[in-house]
Amino acid sequence: MIALLLAGAAAAFEPVIEQLNGGQVDWTRMELVAEASGRPPGGSLLSWEAMEGEARSQLGPKMLKLARDVRMDSTRYVRDLLDGVGRVADRLDDNLSLWEAFQVRYHTSGLVEVEGALSLHPWLRPALVARARGNDRGGPPAGPATGLVIDLRGIKVSPAVAPVVRSEAGEVLYGLDGITAAAAALRMPVVYVSDPADPVAVARAGEQPVLVQALRVSEGVDPVVSAKDTARIQAAAAESPFLLQAQVVFVVGE
User: Fold this and answer.
1) Within the chain, how many helices (H) and strands (E) appear?
2) CB atoms < 10 A from the CB of 15, how many?
3) Cα angle 5-71-97, degrees, rounded to a multiple of 5
4) Residue 201: how many CA atoms within 13 Å on its side-chain side?
């Protein structure tokens, strides 16, 4: 189980950060972050630009290595998709080039550090859309529920791109297969926050979400909810398409 760190103490709401070998995943902003550096050989007078170029040239391979370790669901990592064959695997491989450098630091020693980020959704969109099978009912929602918020605080959980929400009886209440292709093209299946009041959570689950407390997690990834909460979720989802539209938030942390 990879430890979770809630980073960014200066922020009003701390993002959910998972440290991986060589970088990290921000599961709130949904992006991979990696860093590379360039340093001139001893005594050389290479320019800052040359050192920055060297650092940037390292970021692509580092991003690929980091991307392979992102957990897809309870049984797979993204590397399983990248190592596959076919159109989806090819597009995921191509989309790895979408990373962007967002910070460059110059040091008097000659060291240049470059941080880059890869937004998870544009990268993984082909795989998400390929698996989305939900049928949009059409028309305005009849019920008031705008989303689903599952409180997992105090439960050890590994974030994943496409977790499944299960009932105590093992019934699948929510998962990537059940959202619409249109929703998969717009957003990740879930978003992780450390506080349900985080604007990220509000933007995803709306002003009137169904709030439930997870009993435990299955396979270290998938929330399990009580029979009572299962009935609440199913009743609300029968009237409003928040599950079809992936309006789901997981709250994690201590």
Assistant:
1) 7, 14
2) 21
3) 100
4) 23
Distance of alpha carbon 248 from alpha carbon 187, whole angstroms: 10
Specify whether the CB–CB gap between 230 and 214 falls below 8 A.
no
Series of mean pLDDT values for 10-residue runs along the chain (254 residues): 38 89 93 82 59 78 91 96 92 89 78 88 96 81 90 97 98 97 97 97 96 98 98 96 97 93
User: Up-side HSE of residue 15: CA atoms within 13 Å toward CB?
Assistant: 15
Under 8 Å between Cβ of 162 and 128: yes
Residue 61 structure tokens:
């391979």
Q: What is the pLDDT of residue 248?
A: 98
Strand order of the sheet with strand 165-167?
Answer: 172-174, 165-167, 222-225, 216-218
CB of 220 within 8 A of CB of 156?
Answer: yes
Q: What pTM was estimated for this model as a whole?
A: 0.88
Residue 222 is given by DSSP the state E
CB 136 within 8 A of CB 234: no
- Cβ neighbours for 138, distance < 8 A, ≥ 6 positions apart: none
> If you ran DSSP here, which 8-state letter would residue 122 be given?
H
> Residue 177: what residue type?
D
**Are the C-beta atoms of residues 58 and 36 closer than 8 Å to each other?**
yes
What is residue 71's DSSP assignment? Answer: B
